[in-house]
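re: ur question from earlier - yeah i can do the single chain one, its not a big deal. heres the input i used so u can compare w yours
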Amino acid sequence: MNTFIMLTKLGSGIARTGTMLEELERSAVDKIREQCPNVRWLHSYAVLGRPDYVDVFSAPDVETAIKVSALVRTFGAADTEIWPALEWEHFKAVSRSLHT
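and the output i got, formated as tokens:
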């Protein structure tokens, strides 16, 4: 499985209350589970920055990660970015294999 980081920025006025936000989250999670059963959510964070949320999940491939992003965008006019990521130890192993 590959690791992906998704940054999400909700459109203005999408979730005016905490209850609305929880309903939006529940709907998105249900849809992702239904259409992307191989996706495993690892972490979710609310952040102070351009994105409202940062999610870390694993998926079998880039196509599935893109599908997750597209599904999230269908809920509440959200903007998303997806970044592929390697754990630090794996990155160091890849770096050691470089021939410069």
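Strands lie at 2-9, 40-46, 53-59, 79-85. not sure if urs matches, ping me
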